Amino acid sequence: MLANYLIGLREGLEAALVVSILVAYLVKTGHRDRLPAIWLGVGSAIALSLAFGALLSFTSQHMSFQAQEAFGGVMSILAVGLVTWMIFWMKRTARFLKRELEGKLADALTVGRAALVTIAFVSVAREGIETSLFIWSAAQASAGTSPLAGATLGLLTAVTLGYLVYRSAVHINLATFFRYTGIGLVVVAAGVLAYGFHDLQEARWIGGLTSTVFDISSQVPLSSWYGTLLKGAFNFNPAPTYVELGVWTTYLAVTMTLFLWPAKSRPAPRPRVEAPATN
Amino acid sequence: MHIHRLLATAVGILLLTLSACGGNGESSAQSYGIKAGDTTCEVEDTSIPAGEVSFDVENTGSDVTEVYVYGKEGDEFSKIMGEVENIGPGTSQDFIVDLTAGDYEVACKPGMVGDGIRTQLTVTSAG
Fold first, then answer.
1. How far B71 CA sits from the closest chain A CA (Å)?
2. Among partner residues A3, A4, A67, which is closest to B17 by beta-carbon distance?
3. Are the C-beta atoms of B67 and B60 separated by less than 8 Å?
4. Boundaries of every domain in chain A
């Protein structure tokens, strides 16, 4: 029960975090009318994953190991691209924020519905097939209903944590919101990118799968609650390969620097030194 | 903003994977059971004929597990031929690998860490 619960939590956490930040962003910038686009992306990803998982579980259809890893890898890297784009789009919003009233945000920003559907879709579909295979196997388990109950509770906990992030996000001020969610998303995306490259290594698109930098899996076991949270939110791998660690470090350093770099002021000249936000 | 193109790419990849999977589906693979416990890794048959092989893994332990089939790469059994992850306690999952004659190792990894509990697997050329 507990182990199945932790798998569900781990698989669902990251998507829940990304989606909740996206929802908080829309609500805070007065784009509530765009929320259906998010639910469309999330809903279609869940439906497609469950259908595809059922196809693989209940028929003789199967997916080769390499295809599965390649799919996971490509989707992960695509997800990182989209989330990175979302981070800088949020940063641009924050820049508008400094000189305009919140009410004007609606005019300043046109967030495409297709973009929202895509980000929500990819964030959920990325781990979707693996999670749905796990859910279907839990549903078929001979050991009664406890594996399925554990898995479902784990996923529900992930959604609840996402909701709590949303709740606390809507209460903090916008500038703080952009800064912290941005930083958080950069760290999450770095983990997804490393995970994606690990998948491509397993699919043998890239070599070096067996050359790991270190292995602290006995100190931080993934089956522990803290290992689960680290893995679930940041794709923490206790035994990373050189490629993974390199990609992770590079992405984190470059993206974090660009994100924290003071925004350029284009149209009007602005004071050199800005007072720290007091609102 | 090439987001439409991105969306199309995402859907494209998904469809491609779906069709790729349809291609090698319809297996008449011989099926063998693996019982993966917390300290054990029991392979039903450790000498099997070459071809498409389906392993039906049951997690009999109390921790999450994953099972790999490794081929030889140099001196080590480190080339992943196939694997299945995230098998919760009390659940079963299967995976299919295409094995040619040779020596392999099956590894059950309780807790999904480390090198796992290894079992030798010999694949003989199908007669």
1. 13
2. A67
3. no
4. 2-260
Provide the ipTM: 0.72
The predicted-structure confidence for A165-221, as pLDDT tens digits, reads as follows 999 988 888 788 888 889 999 999 999 999 999 999 988 899 888 888 998 988 888
User: In this complex, is the C-beta atom of B19 within 8 Å of any C-beta atom belonging to chain A?
Assistant: no
Q: What pLDDT digit, counting tens, does each position of B75-106 carry? A: 889 888 999 988 999 999 989 899 999 999 99
Low-confidence ranges of chain B (pLDDT < 50): 1, 21-26
C-alpha–C-alpha distance, residues A43 and A29, integer Å? 23
Q: In B, which residues are within 8 Å of A59 by CB distance?
A: 25
Chain A: closest CA distance from residue B103 (Å): 19
Mean pLDDT value across residues A217-245: 89
Tell me the nearest-neighbour CA distance from B108 into chain A, angstroms.
15
DSSP per-residue codes, A241-258: BHHHHHHHHHHHHHHHHH
CATH value at residue B119: 2.60.40.420
Domain count, chain B: 1
- Are A65 and B82 inside 8 Å of each other by CB? yes
Q: Which domain holds residue B31?
A: 26-124
Residue B60 within any structural domain of the chain: yes
Residue B10 has its nearest CB partner, among A61, A118, A151, at A118
Helix (H) or strand (E) holding B7: helix B3-23
